[in-house]
Design a protein that fits this description.
alpha/beta; globular; 40% helix
Length: 250
Amino acid sequence: MHASDSIVIIPTYNEKENIEKIIRAVFGLEKCFHILIIDDGSPDGTAAIVKELMSQEEFKDRLFLQERSGKLGLGTAYIKGFKWALEHDYEYIFEMDADFSHDPNDLPRLYAACADEGYDVAIGSRYVSGVNVVNWPIGRVLMSYFASKYVRMVTGFMIHDTTAGFKCYKRRVLKTIELDKIRFKGYAFQIEMKFTAYKIGFKIKEVPVIFVNRREGVSKMSGGIFGEAFFGVMRLRWDGIFRKYPKIAE
């Protein structure tokens, strides 16, 4: 039995090249983490690889899988994972990509920010100490960097990496946020979750990390995702003025 207070949620779509490697990398850490894979009907057999690993004794009771029928959006995948994690009583709930753009070795640093330093949300930040991105095309680096600048300018939300997808939430954050009211499914989902946590009053820390572009598999990023984020920020600004946010749950 591998007991843990922490679950790492990894959404997947066609990640057969990476999925076993990322699972083994997380389980190879000194700190014990559990993993929940949310697979959106990957035609390349990603879910089958996870099921095979789950059948092995070394992965029993710490590797879990939720399958969905198709590509339903990053945000809805995480919402499903958050609800599952809350139902299973995890105290620290992580978001992480499957493609090694997020270094599993940084998971204990995010955990420490919440478990030891008292923060409610820890963000693996590419921009809090400069621009820490490796092997990204310069156009995409600039788009991501200035997207975060844009969010700060429009909303007044003083986080350097507002679009980051590498995070740790304390349980009470996800219990308080009204998950069914989160609107956005793509890139803007990450912004909306952080902004909502901030408006409720949770303590947020940016932990500097180095983001490395995927080595294997195909990126899922698209122009439409950035479009959703651009216009979604305006809606968040409006919400920030007029919406009544819930009180912090204990």
